[in-house]
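The methods section describes the discrete structure representation at length, but only in general terms. Each protein is reduced to its one-letter sequence and a matching series of backbone shape codes. I believe one specimen quoted in the main text would settle the matter. An entry of this sort, consisting of the sequence and the corresponding backbone structure tokens, reads as follows.
***
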Amino acid sequence: MPTEHSTGSTRSQGSITKTGNGHARRLLVESAWHHRSPYRHPGATMLARWEAAPPAARARGHEGNRRLHQRWQIFNDRKKKPVVANIAIARELAGWCWSLATLE
């Protein structure tokens, strides 16, 4: 569950809280580590899965994978600790998964 404290025009995002499903949180954190390495085109298995997905979800997934890796690069350039950067990526990944789930 990502935290957020917003009032008026200011928006402050926090880390992932320890509320909610611990298994889902662990999966988000583990999958965030995979976005650290440079994003390349998916292999044959992943391409077969993407063929079953709607075109809008496929394009959104490709764009999201690239964006999450770029966020890793920004955190590395800013000399952030890898574990702190990973949680930030996991938080963004949670929002991205939600947007894919609600995509029409």
